[in-house]
Write a structure and sequence with these properties.
Elements: H1 16-23, H2 40-55, E1 63-66, E2 72-77, E3 95-97, H3 111-115, H4 117-120, H5 125-131
Antiparallel strand pairs: 1-2, 2-3
């Protein structure tokens, strides 16, 4: 019987994958939080959002982008971007942020919705409220 140092639960209450995630702390490529701050479902949702974006581009490097007052988000370079030796090109102009989309309405999620995507089942708050028949009073 051994206890997890992250969530203080017995090892039998963890799946094998979650136990491994809690033992070796790694950084999430989507939100930059550590693996101990994620549930298994949330880790997979964040990982799939980044993986799907990387499949669509020929540039396989992740960049960090800050839009306005929001937090840093992962970004990828546009496929048309070329590194030229003869003149400097600013790659920031060619960055496209990676967002998570709502599973129902396909609009992009906000940071709070991204942090709790496992609880909301990948939905935005509006769709989640409609699904659970809650009113917005």
């Amino acid at each position: 019987m051994s206890f997890c140092t992250v969530c203080l639960k017995d090892s039998k209450e963890h799946s094998e994958k979650l136990w491994k995630m809690h033992k070796e702390i790694t950084k999430c490529t989507f939100c930059s939080k550590t693996s101990d701050a994620h549930s298994e479902a949330l880790w997979e949702m964040h990982k799939s959002a980044v993986d799907n974006a990387l499949k669509k581009t020929k540039h396989k490097k992740l960049w960090s982008l800050k839009l306005g007052l929001g937090r840093d988000c992962p970004a990828i370079l546009d496929n048309d971007f070329r590194f030229y030796d003869d003149f400097p090109t600013n790659p920031a102009e060619w960055l496209h942020p990676i967002y998570m989309a709502c599973t129902e309405c396909h609009l992009y999620l906000g940071s709070i919705e991204e942090d709790h995507a496992d609880i909301l089942d990948g939905m935005c708050l509006k769709c989640f409220m409609e699904m659970t028949e809650q009113r917005d009073d």
